[in-house]
Design a protein that fits this description.
mainly alpha; 3-stranded antiparallel β-sheet; globular; disordered N terminus; calcium; mannosyl-oligosaccharide 1,2-alpha-mannosidase activity
Length: 602
């Protein structure tokens, strides 16, 4: 593998060059006028008629001998056309109505889940976090567990049909108390614990115990909203004191993902309790975020918590921003497409993502997403510089774009599998193709010594000056990775789910077996390199080192997301279908519903 060798042999002095800012492009957010010049009209009837007849005859001949030229012209004229994508077969693929399970591969996923869960039960049952190598657990604060692991994994146990394990987990949750005098992340507590309780409530057939726990937790969280002068919640909460707390690292600031990824959970809680209070809290956030947007319709990472406005900071689809974009679409889906405001916000955001952030590598033209970094000019104006950095977190976007294409840009309520040419509008086809290409790129980043993808990659651009190196990578690389030195943070694989999430969505929407094949390869790589023999799985410190070195931590999202999405990838399409469920950002399925009261923001 040439790219692999080049990443290992890449010289140290390039890291300094990359940090210097040469590995970037400056971009303007002004829209350019691309309208063609209008040619002079001809006055001679005979001459113009001759030209029209000749041109038409030539066009017919070209269509007969070179039909692809015509299709390319059509694609250019309408601005985009996935239905003329060269990657698609010449004939329309057969529409599939139902996707059968792959029992063998799904069974292997269940056995891997049990290998991890049984070790956690043995060594650390109830602990918030698990350390499989040392075989012990730890909690987020000294005051005890809030069920970070157990509650986050409840619905995985339900979905996989692990009844005995589920019964033991439910019994533990029944004795769980949230009266903990410690500071907890508002965002993480909501998506993992509140989301886990709500999903378990629905999948259990409305077990009241889960609802009571969810209401208690939500009420303890409520102060982060009600005590805020701007409506943006405090990033941390003391659950015992029921008091919002500022971040110690970024005092006075909140990230757009922290505040823009609470909505599915609190809205569903309002729906099942018939109490609009929770809904109003998170709806107010969306109103503030919409009013604060820059002209490019993209969210900067940080906002001033007290004033409710964006501060000049990076624009990214990765850490601290990713799930904000995810929830724009999913809020629209959650209420059965009754709130057009979220469809419009999503459309504006994705149009800007396509215009400003989607780029192509210089080697093989792989599509990826850049980040925009603000820079101040001498006259105090802000310009934006692109940097070709993509987090593994961004790999959610491929599946999200494809889901958005069929859910928000279709002419029909239920597009075919895969969509037919007539079923999506031009925006839908554009998102569909970009989504497919981003998934391909994310799979390319698995071309490592372990077959696992790193936490962060950088892509080649024309101005990076790397062609001078003998073993310069063609398309992407791990910055700072060199043989003989400790691996950089970017080189690790933390058991993340984003790529398999997109593979699951893409398979459900297309029926294309290539996505199952990709998912199986990732699962096999996890089994080979991240599995701890005594039980559990652990973070791989360097994906380009084989045998791999492991870090003593198994993230809760490995069981709540990664293995769940793999299980669903190999299950039949009747299990948690997209027309009945929407998944929160921690992979907790929540039912689609229509609100029973007027939603003020929409």
């Amino acid at each position: 593998m040439r790219d692999l060798r080049s990443r290992k042999k890449f010289k140290a002095n390039h890291a300094a060059e990359s940090n210097s800012g040469s590995n970037s492009d400056t971009v303007s957010i002004k829209k350019q006028d691309k309208s063609p010049e209008v040619p002079d009209k001809r006055t001679s009837f005979d001459y113009s008629t001759y030209l029209w007849i000749s041109g038409f005859a030539g066009l017919l001949a070209l269509a007969f001998f070179k039909p692809t030229v015509i299709t390319d012209l059509i694609g250019f004229w309408i601005g985009f056309s996935d239905h003329y994508d060269v990657d698609r077969p010449a004939t329309v693929p057969e529409t599939r109505k139902w996707l059968p399970p792959d029992h063998d591969k799904r069974g292997a996923v269940v056995r891997a889940f049990q290998h991890a869960w049984h070790a956690y039960e043995r060594d650390a049952m109830g602990s918030d976090e698990y350390h499989p190598i040392s075989q012990n657990g730890s909690n987020l604060t000294e005051t005890g567990s809030i069920g970070y692991m157990v509650v986050d994994v409840l619905d995985s146990l339900q979905i996989m049909g692990l009844d005995q394990e589920y019964a033991r987990a439910r019994a533990w949750v029944a004795d769980l108390s949230f009266d903990k005098d410690g500071e907890y992340s508002t965002f993480e507590t909501t998506i993992r614990v509140l989301g886990g309780l709500l999903s378990a409530y629905h999948l259990s057939g409305n077990d009241k115990m889960y609802l009571e726990k969810a209401v208690d937790l939500a009420d303890r969280l409520s102060s982060v909203f009600s005590d805020s002068p701007s409506g943006l919640p405090y990033p941390y909460v003391n659950l015992h004191e029921r008091k919002g707390v500022h971040s110690k690292d970024y005092t006075g600031l909140v990230s757009v993902a922290e505040v823009g990824t609470l909505q599915l959970e609190f809205r569903y809680l309002s729906h099942i309790t018939d109490d609009p209070t929770y809904w109003r809290y998170v709806e107010k956030i969306m109103s503030v975020l919409k009013g604060a947007l820059y002209e490019h319709n993209l969210a900067s990472i940080f906002l001033n918590h007290l004033e409710g406005r964006y501060i000049t900071s990076a624009v990214s689809l990765g850490s601290r921003a990713d799930s904000y974009y995810e929830y724009l679409l999913k809020q629209y889906i959650q209420t059965n497409k009754t709130e057009d405001v979220y469809a419009k916000m999503y459309r504006s955001a994705m149009d800007s993502v396509q215009q400003f952030l989607v780029s192509e590598s210089v080697g093989n033209g792989f599509k990826y997403t850049s980040e925009m970094l603000p820079e101040e000019t001498e006259d105090k104006q802000i310009t934006w510089r692109l940097t070709p950095k993509q987090d593994h977190l961004v790999c959610f976007l491929g599946g999200s774009l494809m889901l958005g294409a069929v859910q928000s840009a279709a002419f029909v309520d239920r597009p075919s599998m895969p969509p037919e040419e007539k079923e999506l509008n031009v925006y839908g086809w554009k998102d569909w193709k970009t989504g497919k290409e981003l998934i391909k790129t994310c799979m390319k980043t698995h071309d490592t010594a372990t077959g696992l993808s790193p936490e962060i990659v950088y892509f080649r651009i024309a101005s990076d000056g790397m062609d001078a190196y003998e073993f310069a990578p063609a398309d992407w690389y791990i910055r700072g990775a060199q043989p003989g030195v400790p691996p950089p943070y970017d080189a690790r694989y933390m058991l993340r789910p984003e790529t398999v999430e997109s593979l699951f969505i893409a398979y459900r929407l297309t029926g294309d077996e290539i996505y199952r094949e990709h998912g199986w390869k990732i699962f096999q790589a996890i089994e080979k390199h991240a599995r701890v023999p005594t039980g559990g799985y652990a973070t791989v410190l360097n994906v380009d080192e084989n045998p791999a070195q492991l870090e003593d931590k198994m993230e809760t999202f490995f069981l709540s997301e990664t293995l769940k999405y793999l299980y669903l990838l190999f299950s039949d399409s009747d299990l948690l279908p997209f027309d009945k469920y929407v998944f929160n950002t921690e992979a907790h399925p929540l039912p689609i519903f229509e609100p029973q009261f007027i939603t003020g923001f929409s």
